[in-house]
Amino acid sequence: MLTEIDHVAIAVHDLEAAIDYYRATYGVEPVHRERIEKDGVDEALIKVADSYIQLLTPFRDDSPLAKYMEKNGEGIHHVGYRVDNCDEVLEDVKAQGARVVDEHPRTGSRGTTVAFLHPKTAFGTLIELVEE
Ligand code: CO
Known about the structure:
alpha+beta
């Protein structure tokens, strides 16, 4: 079902400072930046082989990420697994009794199709299925 690690998402308070850190420390630049209105987040993607580091920061106080960071601070927020067919995998995991955040696939950044699975039934990790 899973074809690659699509991305590891890291929640940060200051996106520009995080980008500067990656530039200064590892000599890498974001290959993509996007404001995801629905989720209330700004992202910067840094490519590592065929995967990304997704730096995420909330741009409004009522975004789910802002609420998460109030409790948990900065750090790894979720892991994105690349799949060939998001809808199919989502239906499979639901049929196996997993809790989901998204009942149906939706549009993610870069025009991907995504669905989030709840950490409660995934050993404490928020998982995102990503179909390119
Ligand atoms: Co993500």
